[in-house]
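Quick one: Cobalt transport protein CbiM from Intestinimonas butyriciproducens, structure tokens please.
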Amino acid sequence: MHIAEGMLPKAWAFGWMAVCVPFVVSGFFSIKKKVDLNPKAKVLLAMCGAFAFVLSALKIPSVTGSCSHPTGVGLGAILFGPTATTILGLIVLLFQALLLAHGGLTTLGANVFSMAIVGPFVSWGVYTLLKKAKTKPSVAVFFAAALGDLLTYVTTSVQLGVVHGNFGEYLAIFAVTQIPLAIAEGLLTVVVFNVLEKYSAVELQELSVL
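--- reply ---
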């Protein structure tokens, strides 16, 4: 993730930005609706943003033009849904590009699509399915966060592979670092969720998480 500046041709860079627009617009309405219904959710929303910022800033060099790191978006997707988390991811990636030189501005659309759209939708979908199957919450959270992380990197591999070729090579190299990182992110997300379940159970019920 964090595809670097200049790694994508202009057509692809602006194309990914265009694809992200409907999700971003939907995300603003989603956040407004949730905050209007539950003003106290602002604190949890801010915490999810901070969680994603810190985790996704811990990068490990992986392949030329990108790096591996946790994404941190699974928690936000579980609590607030995928489109709301798209806004959090956009803010996180924009600040990281400007302040930390993690990723680029021209590649922001591609990075948002992989980390702030694909990742959250996968995490939300996995959690929703496992919740309906009456799976233990901690198990559902683990798989949601871990798979959301992994699919983010599959998407990044596709984005780089389509432009530069060797999709399989990108995927294989990412796998070395990303599989253990995804497992670690899943476990950490479970720890945070368990704390929230203990001290913010009312808020989680109002958000229909529990």
